[in-house]
Amino acid sequence: MSEQNLVEAATRCFACGPDNPIGLRIRFSIDAEGRCNGTFTPGENHVGYRNTVHGGIIYSALDDVMANVLYLQDRKAHTARCEIRYRQALEIGQTIQLSGWIATERRRLVVLKSEARLATDQTLIADCEASFMTM
Fold first, then answer.
1. d(CA 127, CA 118)
2. How far apart, in whole angstroms, are the C-alpha atoms of residue 58 and residue 107?
């Protein structure tokens, strides 16, 4: 596969690329309502302070679940702006469920939202809103 095809296929994406040896390797899928979903269990390489997951790892997972709402529908886009709100600390080994969906869409601008919730009891860890520009 050529370098361009590797980029187009996103197999080296940090968040979801299966060919990225240091990536998160989150698998995403689209449900019947058009939501993108995935799960992620952070390990010891994702720590920020003591047993707490680095906020940038949580941000990456939320940004990517939103991007995959479009990517899995063969729509090319990139993040133009993103705002995250951290609600609870996430500890190493706690599995989160990720969900992303389209909030609004106008011409080339798509506003998406996402959430990360504990798989055990649905506690909200963080939520995000982002603007994506389609190409």
1. 12
2. 29
Q: Which two tokens stand for residue 16?
A: 């979801």
**Per the structure block, which two tokens stand in for 46?**
């994702």
Are 104 and 51 contacting, i.e. CB atoms less than 8 angstroms apart?
no
Overall size of the chain counted in residues: 135
Contact 47/54 with Cβ under 8 angstroms? yes
Q: Which residue reads 């019947």 in tokens?
A: 32
Tell me the sheet residues that pair with 49. 52
Handedness of CA 125, 129, 130, 134 (dihedral sign): positive
Residue in this structure with the two tokens 């609870």, named with its chain if needed: 88
Q: Is 30 helix (H, G, I), strand (E, B) or coil?
A: strand
Topology of domain 28-134, per CATH?
A: Thiol Ester Dehydrase; Chain A (3.10.129)
pLDDT digits (tens, 9 = 90+) for 15-58: 999 999 999 999 999 999 999 999 999 999 999 999 999 999 99
- What pLDDT is stored for residue 6 in this prediction? 40
- Which pTM value belongs to this model? 0.91
Single out the residue of 16, 22, 129 nearest to residue 72, CA to CA: 16
Q: What is the pLDDT of residues 94-118, one digit of tens each?
A: 999 999 999 999 999 999 999 999 9
